Amino acid sequence: MKEYVRQLPPIHEMQKDNRFQQLVSTYKLHHELVTELIQNQIQQVRSNLLNGNFNGPSTAKTEFIDLLFTHVENDCIRISEYYLQPVINATGTVLHTNLGRARLSEKAIEQVVNVARNYSNLEYNLSSGKRGSRHDIIEELIINVTGAEAAMVVNNNAAAVYLILRALAKDKNVIVSRGQLVEIGGSFRVSSIMEESGANLIEIGTTNKTHLYDYENAIDENTAMIMKVHTSNFKTIGFTKTVESDELVSLTKKNDGVIFYEDLGSGSLFDFKGNSIGDEPVVADIIDQGVDIVSFSGDKLLGGPQAGIIAGKKILIDKLKKHQLARVLRVDKMTFAALEATLKAYLQDTEKIISIPTVRDILLTPETIKERANQFVAKMNEATIGFECEVTEDFSQVGGGTMPEVLLPTYVVTLHKNGQSADTIATLLRQSKPSVITRIKNEQIILDFRTIMEDESATLISILKNL
Known about the structure:
Elements: H1 2-5, H2 11-16, H3 18-27, H4 31-51, H5 61-80, E1 87-89, H6 106-117, E2 124-125, E3 130-131, H7 135-146, E4 150-154, H8 157-169, E5 173-177, E6 183-184, E7 188-189, H9 190-197, E8 200-204, H10 212-218, E9 223-229, H11 245-254, E10 259-265, H12 283-288, E11 293-297, E12 308-312, H13 314-322, H14 325-328, H15 333-345, H16 350-353, H17 357-363, H18 366-383, E13 388-396, E14 408-416, H19 422-430, E15 435-437, E16 439-441, E17 444-448, H20 454-466
Parallel strand pairs: 1-15, 5-8, 5-9, 9-10, 10-11
Antiparallel strand pairs: 2-3, 4-12, 6-7, 11-12, 13-14, 14-17, 16-17
Helix pairs in contact: 3-5, 4-5, 6-15, 7-15, 8-9, 18-20
GO molecular function, one term: L-seryl-tRNA(Sec) selenium transferase activity
Pathway: Aminoacyl-tRNA biosynthesis; selenocysteinyl-tRNA(Sec) biosynthesis; selenocysteinyl-tRNA(Sec) from L-seryl-tRNA(Sec) (bacterial route): step 1/1
Function: Converts seryl-tRNA(Sec) to selenocysteinyl-tRNA(Sec) required for selenoprotein biosynthesis.
């Protein structure tokens, strides 16, 4: 192997090669960066040779150089491409956390582009000509759609929970049912966030049953808050008992100075229950019960950008706005732009609300989805690509840690091709441009047309042709 190591070319020799300048020119990269990529590849080959892990050419120096330039060009391609790129979500999961959760409405996208392209009045009051506040951009809208006295926005719901606990309950007791000490994606636990905030966690009840008297017995002179965490990412069934929000509102009113805070998690502004989908509470209904403060996500059932929305009593929201963490956790102009456009839809008629992709896709009827699937299969058959296609009934999921028990009836297209496993086809689809993310069921590829848009069908057929 040492003999092969000696065949490795020096850096300056590769820099003199015409292919070096071609890489610099083609991929518009700095001379120094391409040199560094060459150095890294030579070091990698040298290491593999000495460790006996090298599987490339082992004779001519020119073959080494060809191999190195091939790897360096792959590195140049990788660096030149955007890491974050659109994908076709064929899984049927509407709020797919790994795929970016909620897709924005066209109005929200237009507003983001408009604000990003120009200067904006982010912190400038156009009426007075003086410095303005970011909180003013969105507060009135949130008040109108939730019925709260005041509101503010931070960068996600975990941040909202942290700010509320830190600002309103630091070094004080916060009572939480053991059945609500949830863990969300990425192993983030409510108990850990509470510990970091400086609040003292007081656990009550059991995993499956918590009674009103458990809360009553836990209240003492150091109690700052009762916290209810909506278990939106799991369901406990069977021998269970939870205390309703209106009961906890009454309890805190009897105990002066104790705040009732409800972390709603998903934060639905649309009544999906009224459409026989799940039992997710509507934010406005929770506020109407007299809850002191609530928080919820912007990129789940609301259908907007990632954000943590806090709404509730003005005296509490004002404290949060003045806290030093409010600046640490604030959101940028693009988030405000997308959120403003999304919230405005909720002030209009149902047709405007359904323009929000999350709401629209959850409400899609099986009949509409079946028609999409049938059209796709007809076009596949016309193209004679060689895949066996069949439209069958199945179920979609809402996803994003939301409505875990809800199965949405749907129609899917199953794909099968002789001589190719489902895993192989799924990998090829994932590595295509654009990437297609699928499900596998019974050794067949599943394409769920709840989340495949009509304009994506032609692209998908073209990709399948290329396989």
